[in-house]
Structures are given as C-alpha cells and as structure tokens.
Amino acid sequence: MAGFCAPREASAQAWARDSRLHFSLSAAMAGGAYGLSAPTGWPHTERLAAAAALSLSVGVAKELYDLSGRGDPEWRDLAWDALGTLTGLALSRGLEWIIEQALGRDAGSPAR
C-alpha cells in the first residue's frame, strides 16, 4: 500500500511547490514593476496595466517554452500566475495608498 501512496505524495508536493513558485514569482514581478514605475508619473491605472502585462507575459512565455517540448505546460500554472499578479498589484497599490494617506496626498496626484 505504501508503494501506491509515495508517488502521489511526491507528485502532490511537486505540484504544490510549482504552484507556489508561479504565484510568488508573479506577485514579486508585478509588485516590483508597479513600484519601480512610481517615478514615471504615470497614472495608477497605466502603471497597474503595464506591471500586469509584464508579469503575465513572462508567465505566458514560460508556458510557451514548456509547450515547445522542454517542460510540462499546464493551464494551472497560468492560473497561479494570474492570481500572483493580482495579489502583487493589490499589495503594491494598497501600500502606495497607505503612504499617500500618511503624507496627505490625494490619490492619483503625482509624487513630489
């Protein structure tokens, strides 16, 4: 019986690790890109769109690479990429909003 459980557990652990990697790297990329775009003076909506496009493009490129026979392409990976991207953007925008409130700036006004 143990022989049947070991591969499943190992597979589940590998899948969980892969999912965490997709989520965390996408969140870091999206949040980092949004934060690094702050000095541009672009409106929040444009910065959010650009950061999301960057993060999701990397995720899609990775799955296309896997599809070329060099990996295991999975729709689940793209779902985790999208969830990580949304989380990274939400956390970054939320932090920026808190800082704006603390500094007494109106949301959407350019940084000084």
How would you characterize this protein structure?
With 112 residues, the chain is mostly helical. It has a domain at 45-105. Helix content is 81%, strand content 0%. The chain is built from three helices and no strands. The chain has helices at residues 2-36, 44-70, 75-103. The longest helix has 35 residues, at 2-36. It is elongated. It starts with a helix and ends in a 9-residue tail after the last helix.
The major pleated sheet works out as: none
Model regions low in confidence, pLDDT < 50 over at least 5 residues: 1-7
Order of helices and strands: HHH
Q: Level of helix content?
A: over 70%
| Total beta-strand segments | 0
Euclidean distance between termini CA atoms? 66 Å
Structural class determined from secondary elements: mainly alpha
Strand content: under 5%
Looking at the structure, what is the overall shape?
Answer: elongated
Mean pLDDT comes to: 88
Quick overview:
The chain is 81% helix and 0% strand. By secondary structure, the protein is mainly α.
What's the structural blueprint in terms of helices and strands?
Elements: H1 2-36, H2 44-70, H3 75-103
Helix pairs in contact: 1-2, 1-3, 2-3
Question: What tags apply to this protein structure?
Answer:
disordered N terminus; single chain; 0% strand; 112 residues; mainly alpha; 3 helices
